[in-house]
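Ligand-bound model needed. S-adenosylmethionine.
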Amino acid sequence: MRFDVLTLFPEMFEGFFSSSIMKRAMDQRLVEASLVNFRDYSTDKHRMVDDTPYGGGGGMVLKPEPLFRAVEALTEETQVRPPVLMMSPQGTPFTQKKAEALSRHSRLILLCGHYEGFDERIRRHLVDEEISIGDYVLTGGELAAMVVMDSIIRLVPGVLGNAGSAEEDSFSTGLLEYPQYTRPADFRGWKVPDVLLSGHHAQIARWRRQQSLERTLERRPDLLEHAPLTDEERAWLKQ
Ligand code: SAM
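Prediction:
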């Protein structure tokens, strides 16, 4: 899996690339990431990448030339252009399903905006999809790009040590995850449920499924509408 991130602030990615699972995935060459400062593609003698908006108003708008030139340079030798994703509060809300769909591509190009955002022609003629990480406005797309990359890399085969752990995560099953416990079995009198200590795999799986359902019903009942449930589970929810 390869990411090309177009940003004016490549230094923001240093900690992300040099820590934890992202670092391991890059060291193992399961994930490759390049940072492109699109200021390097400015045609302006002052290396300007933004300008005032036509029609007036505050703030600066990212000019089309540097971003078009940067994407064209990245893709000039590729036969099939990888999807170009714009980080944007106006985009499709990012979900686990979207992360799963994007993880099936071998390469993605991520555009990080700043200031007032992008000239509309970038949105219309360069970008395949706009992605929003939530209904709030960030100062730049860098944090959004890291969120998107982080959620995708954990789905790349081999990146997580225990392959099962991504499959059972919240949202992957359509439900929120069941409660997790580790040692000690008794902490300050708060005990781990007996079933988890029983060693009885079928009972543990049943308990976890029931806990997932209850937790989802309590916290995110909206998810239940589209979750793959058995007839028995649907009947239980209607009680
Ligand atoms: N004026 C723009 C608007 O109202 O849509 C907001 C621009 S914002 C200050 C600057 C940049 O941050 C955006 O171009 C985008 O790349 C990024 N950004 C801000 N909020 C975001 C969000 N919720 N999801 C993804 N990217 C976001």
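The two ends are 45 Å apart (CA to CA).
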